[in-house]
Amino acid sequence: MSEPIPTEAQAAETQAVAPAATTTENTAPAPTAEGEAAGPTKGELKRRAKEAEKAKKAAERAAREEEERKKREAKEAQDDAKQNYGKLPLHQSQERNNRKFLRFGDLSESSVGQRVIFRARMHNSRAQGAKIVFLNFRQQTHTLQGVLVVSGEKDENQVSKQMLKFSQLIPSESIVLVEGVIKSAEVKSCTITDYEVGIHKLFTAVEVGELPFSIDDASRPEADFEKAEQDENLQYSRVALPTRLDNRVMDLRTPTNQAIFRIQSAVGQLFREYLNSQGFIEIHSPKLQGAATESGASVFKVQYFNGTAFLAQSPQLAKQMAIAGDMERVYEIGPVFRAEDSNTHRHMTEFMGLDLEMAFEEHYHEVLEVLDEMLKNIFKGLQKGFKHEIEVIKKQFPHEDFLFLDETLKLPFKEGIKMLKEAGAKASDGSELGELDDLSTENEKFLGRLVREKYKTDYFILDKFPLAIRPFYTMPDPVDSTLSNSYDFFMRGEEILSGAQRVHDPSFLIERMKSVGIDPSTMTGYLDAFKLGAPPHAGGGIGLERVVMLFLKLGNIRRASLFPRDPKRLTP
């Protein structure tokens, strides 16, 4: 009997519950009536296979790249120039090779092509591309450009990328040791403009940390700040004088200060050389004294065991006693102390005095003329032997060259007062200027301008000062008892030397002491020297820092003092 033919509904039900057929290409279950997912199609399977193959190739490629990277890093880690740079061990004088170290100031055309070694400060650096770095090195007033270029050659002078990177990380003001070859070049960023050094070796000997200010900022002239006020694109940091003095070690590194203190040193050297040539001898007097030498109001008192001592206001008394001891011509360079609460541009409580004393035969002008020739010898020596230093200073402190005459102008004090009165000057209280009035700072400067305009000189002498404004040991004028045989020397309208003929008669000296309120019994040692007999003599004292300040027109005496002392500063 034949099977009955199923209805369409029965066929559909049978198909829904029948198991799906399987093939080698499709093993996933077929969709069910409840909506289960059907197996992937052939196309899907092919796509998956391709993705798997692609992933396999990507993994192989990544493995190859990783292997190559490791090889590259290993190669880079093998720095063939590592012996040419780095940080040196602590310098403990481990060895001495007697190498000749270059001083930048000695560079010349004959230096080109020579291999050199030098120690210097790292002034600054800048990269140019990925393979060149320019470094500026500084030695005192000179700066020299160095060039570091990556090289592919494997030799003792090889420069690697690691060495280039090292150079860029050296802190400014670090002390470096450099070897290289001098080359001709045109350089604008350094004081040495004709040469540079091709760097082969670069080591740090001393590395530094945070700086209080940059040398570039501390070296800027006032004109730069004036330009910055007019141009908003220019941004400069002004380093104020108190900040400089608080961080004096840093400030001393500027080329300007290096030049200033070379000139200060030269003033002392020229002072010595001239006086030695004139038969003077150098003495060294004590700075602790048992009595004030000039006025009690301006003397420092110090505890001296169970008593009181005074810091010397000058070596005046010691110089005179040396003359009484038949030394004839003496000089001294030493500290002078003044307890004056003067917070001005030209006063300090401690400064270096250049003092001299000299016996004369007929007239105190013999001494005045020696002082004059000595100062002119200093001026000439500075202008001839220190042109480089003067030009360095002019970049930050522009000024006209110091003018002085072959025959120095000598004005009587009354003549100076007359010039001031004719020009409309008044006394400090606004009253009429008297013939015997002391000169105020303003009138000194005014007289300096009048003299420069009339006589074309920055240097002159005022003679015959009023006796009332001079120290007790000053000899009165033989004709006019209101005047004295005393003198001041001026530079750019400011006094730099004060001097006079001294009273050498003991009786007259006692009389002069009493007239200014000094008890002669407190100065018996001084008086006893004159009781033994002293020749007529005269001398003077010069403020070293004031000479330097005025010659270079620095504007403030503290700039001419290594570590200045004033009423508000005792450190550093």
From TrEMBL:
GO terms for biological process: aspartyl-tRNA aminoacylation. It catalyses: tRNA(Asp) + L-aspartate + ATP = L-aspartyl-tRNA(Asp) + AMP + diphosphate. It is found in: Cytoplasm. Residues 43-82 have a biased composition (Basic and acidic residues). Residues 1-41 have a biased composition (Low complexity). Residues 1-97 are annotated as: Disordered. It comes from the Eukaryota. InterPro entries: Aa-tRNA-synt_II (IPR004364), aa-tRNA-synth_II (IPR006195), aa-tRNA-synth_II/BPL/LPL (IPR045864), Asp-tRNA_synthase_2 (IPR004523), Asp/Asn-tRNA-synth_IIb (IPR002312), NA-bd_OB-fold (IPR012340). Gene3D superfamilies: Bira Bifunctional Protein, Domain 2, Nucleic acid-binding proteins. Its main location: cytoplasm. One of its GO terms (molecular function) is aspartate-tRNA ligase activity. Keywords: Aminoacyl-tRNA synthetase, ATP-binding, Cytoplasm, Ligase, Nucleotide-binding, Protein biosynthesis. Residues 261-564 form the Aminoacyl-transfer RNA synthetases class-II family profile domain. Its EC number is 6.1.1.12. GO terms for cellular component: aminoacyl-tRNA synthetase multienzyme complex; cytosol. Belongs to the class-II aminoacyl-tRNA synthetase family. Type 2 subfamily. This is Aspartate--tRNA ligase, cytoplasmic. It comes from Kwoniella pini CBS 10737. The lineage of its organism: Eukaryota, Fungi, Dikarya, Basidiomycota, Agaricomycotina.
